[in-house]
Amino acid sequence: MIDTADIPLVVDLDGTLTPTDTLLESVVQLVKRSPSSLLLLPWWLLRGRAGFKEAISTRAAIDAERLPYNAPLLDYLREEKSRGRQIVLATAAHHSIAQAVSGRLGVFDKVLATQSGSNLKGPAKLQAIQDNVGEAFVYAGDCAADLPIWKQARAAILVGVPQRIAEQVRQSTPIERDFQRPETGLATWLRALRVHQWAKNVLLFVPLLTTFEFTDIGKLIHIVLAFMAFSLAASATYVVNDLWDLGNDRVHPRKRLRPFASGALPIHHGLLVAGAALALALALAATVSPGFAWMLLAYLVLTSSYSWVIKEYVLMDVLMLSLLYTIRILAGSVAIGVTTSSWLLAFSAFTFLSLALVKRCAELVSLKEAGAPATRGRDYRVSDLVVLWPLGVGAALCAVVVFGLFISAPETQARYATPQLLWLVAIGLVYWMARLWIKTSRGEMHDDPVVYALKDRGSRLTVLAMIAAVMVAHFSVLEFFP
Question: Which residues cross the membrane (predicted)?
Answer without folding.
Answer: 220-240, 260-285, 291-309, 386-409, 421-438, 459-481
